[in-house]
């Protein structure tokens, strides 16, 4: 039996924001063949450092891990956009600190996951959130640049949520930053596609969208 483990935040742990049977984990388990099962360890609201607690619960029979984390890390620094600075260069120094800190934490996390689960897939942070401010979108791109760079550096497969969840209907009416039933369906379809098609032995990243 193959066990697909979902790590991260509310991109996977979205049951609170959708109708019954529409969450990512419910749709995924309904889509898998009989020799696969899925386990949800992702927790709504978690940031990168919280995933270590999830890893403590990693089942012994885990064969695949999917990680979606970083959105809440970005939300925690959104107040920086309200700070004043005397020059653009001064403002960029603040974002440089944020970028380097996230890169260090994200790299350490995926290195730890890879030591436990060889077949890892990483998700970018979605950025087609309804009514997102353009400057917030610019700040979010810093986090996605790190996620993509680190994923490619270790040859993992990638699900690009920026391209996948690109419609307003992909987001919950309860909370505009969480996947709706439609968004969850799109995510599940790509998870299943990765499992069926991706060659984890060649260490060449492939983007699924």
Description:
The protein is α/β, with parallel strands linked by helices. The chain has helices at residues 24-31, 51-55, 71-76, 88-116, 134-153, 161-164, 181-197; strands at residues 2-8, 36-40, 62-68, 119-123, 157-159, 207-208. It has a 6-stranded parallel β-sheet, sandwiched between helices. Helix 1 packs across helix 7 and helix 4 packs parallel to helix 5. It starts with a strand and ends with a strand. The mean pLDDT is 91.
Q: Approximately how much beta-strand content do the residues carry? A: 5-15%
The description of the largest β-sheet is: 6 strands, parallel
Shape: globular
Level-2 CATH architecture: 3-Layer(aba) Sandwich
Q: In terms of quaternary structure, what is this?
A: single chain
Report the C-alpha radius of gyration, rounded. 17 Å
- Unreliable residue stretches: none
CATH domain fold name: Rossmann fold
Helix content: 40-55%
Structural class: alpha/beta
**Average of pLDDT:** 91
**CATH top level label:** Alpha Beta
The structural domain count equals 1
